[in-house]
Amino acid sequence: MANEQYSFDNEQYRRTYWHTCSHILAQAVKRLYPEVKLAIGPSIENGFYYDLDAPFSFTGEIMEQLEGEMRKICKEKLKLERFELPRDEALEFMKDEPYKIELINDLPEDEVISFYRQGEFTDLCAGPHLDSTGRVKGNAIKLTACNAAYWRGDSNRQTLQRIYGIAFPKKDQLDEYLQKQEEAKRRDHRKLGRELGLFMTSDLVGKGMPMFLPKGYTLWQILENYIKEKERKLGYQHVLTPCVGTVDLYKTSGHWEHYKENMFPAMEVEDEQFVLRPMNCPHHMMIYANRPHSYRQLPIRIGEVAHDFRFEASGTLKGIERARHFCQNDAHLFVTPEQIKDEVAAVCDLIFEVYRDFHITDYRCVLSLRDPADKKKYHDDDEMWNKAETALREVLTDLGIQFTEEIGEAAFYGPKLDVNVKPAVGAEYTLSTCQLDFCLPAKFNLTYTDSDGTEKTPVVLHRAILGSLDRFMAYLIEETMGAFPAWLAPVQVKVLPVTDRASEYADQVEQKLSAAGYRVEVDHRSEKLGYKIREAQGQKIPYMIVVGDKDMENQTVSIRHRSGKDLGAMSQEDFLSLLKNVVDSKATD
Prior knowledge:
Layout: H1 11-32, E1 37-38, E2 43-44, E3 47-53, H2 60-75, E4 80-84, H3 87-93, H4 98-106, E5 114-118, E6 121-124, E7 141-150, E8 159-167, H5 171-187, H6 189-195, E9 199-200, E10 211-212, H7 214-233, E11 237-238, E12 244-246, H8 247-253, H9 255-259, E13 267-269, E14 272-276, H10 281-288, E15 300-309, E16 325-335, H11 340-357, E17 363-369, H12 382-398, E18 404-407, E19 416-421, E20 429-437, H13 440-443, E21 448-449, E22 455-456, E23 459-468, H14 469-480, E24 493-497, H15 503-515, E25 520-522, H16 529-538, E26 543-547, H17 549-554, E27 556-561, E28 566-571, H18 572-584
Parallel strand pairs: 11-15, 17-18, 24-25, 24-26
Antiparallel strand pairs: 1-3, 2-3, 3-8, 4-5, 5-6, 7-8, 9-10, 12-14, 13-14, 15-16, 16-23, 17-19, 19-20, 20-23, 21-22, 26-27, 27-28
Helix pairs in contact: 1-2, 6-14, 11-12
């Protein structure tokens, strides 16, 4: 194997390294707690885990013991040896491990049953592995968490304990990783969302069904109004459509065939089946089909901030970043083939204009294509796909947009431009998208009358600029750590009267600022001024106005910024001018 294949930057080697670590973890468990039964232990995107059936909980203290034993196993430099057994001998060999027995019985009759041995420990495994436990750096292993997990992902089966771990070839790499994890915890939008009173969740309401509190909904409305205003100026027409649709609607669109597993189960009402909609394209297709169209009317741009529902696995849910209910900043543009380039260009211009407003600079553009070999995931029409992919590639090239291509990431009905952002912590993900679709317009028999009087099928651009408002908000929370720019802050100004004598003047200041369109609160509590200031700073409120006897006498306001900077006393008009400049320019701190 070449040197670069042993590099931790090589995904195959990294996965092999972590897979070996999972076996080292299992060996440590069996050494210290031989009564524990083993389930499975794969490598994952960031590290490894092992599912275990134990008559006790794996506490922090036990996890530390296991880490110590893992370090010993690494120092022992045990050779990993692969061997195979016939089915009957494999079952006998694993007779004390019920989960391994089930796995063996489920293997096809003609499949090789292989094991890996390291010292006294042997595990059922297809591999691959490193050749020795000595290849793993013992002091660069960390067991990070222990959570409940259902055997084989089935909620009706045994509940196991899943121990997660991470490992690196060097100790400083582990330290860097753990430091990033701590930063991620500080920025976690779920934690900040609770602390800042933005949103909440309740298992009684339902997993993945977040509820926005007054401050969070204020931010949500700011985002909604912001993007709708930009769209209106570009000729978009906004609509409102139902959150449900018939199964027949989604059979027509193809979502039932290609997306059913991600949809909520159908509901039967008066002998008709309905589902919660996972996306809005079919509804918008029907709006277009509501009346005849001439080529002179195209492009038609239909927009909606629409409520959608997808049945995401419970293990993938993450606050408002990934939920079962969310609201998409969605739109469908019905265009002629000749209009594709100009409309894609306008969508890209809008995306990049929005990113400038929100100071988003770390992103990349991806042309997401189908996997031609996957006939199940994608609409099966090679001619349509070749036409659509070629058209979108040529448009992006002509526009001078730099992009990479990724196979297997297209929508089932067409290729797309995805704009992936790299957040302050964590892996990149898609915020904005523009999809080129020759498929659904044909499925819904959409037409327009062309200049020669013939009926033609329009092309549809599916596009989302903010993506879902929920995910976009999660992105903003983590990027800013809740210290939103003043134009976005749910509360822009907090007025803090120093004494009860200043309360009436504080109300007057609040009324003047509110009348000018700003979001202001007054803190009338009988608390010390320092406490009020610290609390307002903790709530990440951009500006605090301190008013006392001198301010009342001079009709001034004393301004403090959430950073701790004292801006001094100024007239109310001067502060209004300052605030207007900051808000109108969408400035950051």
